[in-house]
Amino acid sequence: MLTFMAAVDQNASSSLSAASLVSVCALVFTVASFWWLNARQGRLQSWEPHSFAALVTHSLARLRLPLVLHNTGAKPIVVQDLRLSFPDESASYLPLLWTSSPSRLEPGPDEGQKLPAGFVVGGREAQQLFIEFEAPFSGFLPEARDYKVEIEVRVGHRKGWRRLLTFILRANNIIYPDRYAVCNNAPLEPTKEDERKAEAALLELLEEHGKSASAQGETKQRGSSNDEGDAGRAP
Description:
Radius of gyration: 30 Å
Structural class: alpha+beta
Shape: elongated
Helix content: 25-40%
Number of helices: 2
Order of helices and strands: HEEEEEEEEEEH
């Protein structure tokens, strides 16, 4: 009789333990599901643009990119700032800063322009934006080749700059760098005529930059000579 009662107690204890385990697992699953669906902090994703607009002179570099930003998490992400740099180039290449958010990719007099302002990407949402980056005397005088470009972002829930996207900018598609126009960034082989036009235009840009630097040097030299002449005269 005692043996039978002990077996019954053991079975009851085993059933209770199994029921408790199931309850705990159900609770953990419920809490984890709620966190994943409603409270998980995600990250921003973006992808290589298939086109861009460019204006490059010896004194100004301006790039306009169509960017898609996707928030992988449930919580909204506040985007505070963006910038563009050339990580594989020399230190003389300054970052291009976010200067405006135009309404379209193709530049024109009737486009809507907005100054940089923070915006929110909702949980599991995606936004398409046109972001214009610019810097005076940035050092970027494009050759007919590929450039590695990095876009960094500052977000509200983290400190400092964080890498958003790295892609290849195909500068050989910039046929007329001094005209603000849309260029193709798809990995397509340009025609011989396109290559000839791009090389001629970029060579002209480099020559203008050289003339400008030479003119500035001559001006400084004249100023120095005049100062020396004035210093040698009697009062």
